[in-house]
Amino acid sequence: MSVKLEDTLKDENLIKRLEEIAKDTALLHGVLMRTKDTPNSPEVVSYAPFTLFPTSVPAALFHQALAVQTQFNRLVDRVSQNHSFLEDTLASTIKVDDFTARLFNIYKQVQQEGHAQKIVVGLNRSDYMLDHSPDGRTSLKQIEINTIAASFGGLASRTPDVHRHILKVANLPDECSLVLDNNPAAGLAKGLAKAWELYGSKRAVVLFLVENVQRNIYDHRYVENELWKRNIPVIRRQFEDVFRTGSLDESKRLFVDGHEVAIVYFRNGYMPQNYTSEQSWEVRLMMERSVAVKCPDISTHLAGTKKVQQELARPGVLECFFPDEPETVAQIRATFAGLYTLDMGEEGDNTVAMALANPDQYVLKPQREGGGNNIYGSEICEVLEKLKNSSERTAYILMDKIQPVPVQNILLRPGAPLKVSSCLSELGAFGAYVRKGSELMLNECVGHLLRTKSSEHADGGVAAGVAVLDNPLLV
């Protein structure tokens, strides 16, 4: 954080004045969430939690994250098309993880029938933290890549103006210019629009498959409105709606409520609890079998699992996906943290021993999205002592714990006291790609996201109620 910003944080009177201005500015700019009490009603809304000030991020590492995103898009797409790699990689996981197994069963069924649709659209977000090594170097290390329901592209499009206004009022005009424009909502919509055009029916709709509780609806609405601007019709439905009113015709076209569906955009379906009944699984299978374009399709969903992430970090694996592109391999590999298998056998046994000896140096990760699932410190010992001789340990991977340097900021949340906190940040880069058959029609990095949380919280994102929205201040 700049010296001026640090001094500003010490000025209690100014901070108190900025608090009200900041919250009003967030509301004025549409940085919104529905409330916990009325998550499905637009009658009462609040600001989405955010930092009072933007957080300093080294410009070189920020640009590195954006530059590598198109290569991660290509990697995810290639992994999704490699049946033997997915089958071999997930073989141990699907024996012990029921959720991944059910997804994989749908994948196998679609493989056997043959893909009804040759158009693929991927909207993903690769998340990083800045690792500070003992020798003083700072490097960009990937936490994970989200290939389904990657969120906050909408709200992140609105936060730069909020922070610029706060900096102006705080008499920090020089810092204003270091907050970049950002519009992931438009970029994500561009990917969906390209796939919709390729589908080739002007009457067909984009179906947002959404959760029952919709606190984060405004994040969706920004992407939705970008599509409407292009005269692309959008409908929002839940699993149960599609079960009631959805069907395939003899050509495997998907119809919901009488609308032909060009694209199913999954903003749901990434966690076991999203599938509230067998009907939800039947709907997922029906959608995957249809000629509707899926964002993501089932193979791309599986390509985002932690086990695939761990396998891609093995020596020689990236080279299989980019056989004649050593620079691409180096660019991607530079962002990898240490990742270790817990498969049964000597290699997995060594990983268990390593984790038990130094649990504070690692993170134990299950095959889950949505934040708040990872295991740290002494809890790693509890889990691995229980599972070390059981195949159930293969439901997890082990990863080096990234060591960022905390910074001071103020986290603004409804009902929370105004106080300076020690904070850690996570940088995300949004990617959009569209492929038709073997031809990549679009491949772009479409924006970024910075989320910040108090350093006392080990895990969890904005939707999980731990992190808040932020902006990088490039230094």
Automatic annotation (TrEMBL):
Which Gene Ontology molecular function entries are recorded, alphabetically?
A: ATP binding; glutathione binding; glutathione synthase activity; magnesium ion binding
What the entry lists under Gene3D superfamilies is as follows: 3.30.1490.50, 3.30.1490.80, ATP-grasp fold, B domain (3.30.470.20), Glutathione synthase, substrate-binding domain superfamily, eukaryotic (3.40.50.1760), Glutathione Synthetase, Chain A, domain 3 (1.10.1080.10)
User: What keywords sit in the KW lines?
Assistant: ATP-binding, Glutathione biosynthesis, Ligase, Magnesium, Metal-binding, Nucleotide-binding
Q: How is the cofactor bound?
A: Binds 1 Mg(2+) ion per subunit.
Q: Could you say which cofactors this protein requires? A: Mg(2+)
Q: Give the enzyme's main class according to its UniProt record, as a single word.
A: ligase
Q: Where is the Glutathione synthase substrate-binding domain?
A: 204-303
Which is a Gene Ontology cellular component entry for this protein?
cytosol
Q: Which residues bind Mg(2+)?
A: E144, N146, E369
- Which family would the database say this protein is a member of? Belongs to the eukaryotic GSH synthase family.
How does this chain assemble? Homodimer.
By what name is this protein known?
A: Glutathione synthetase
Tell me the lineage of the source organism.
Eukaryota, Metazoa, Chordata, Craniata, Vertebrata
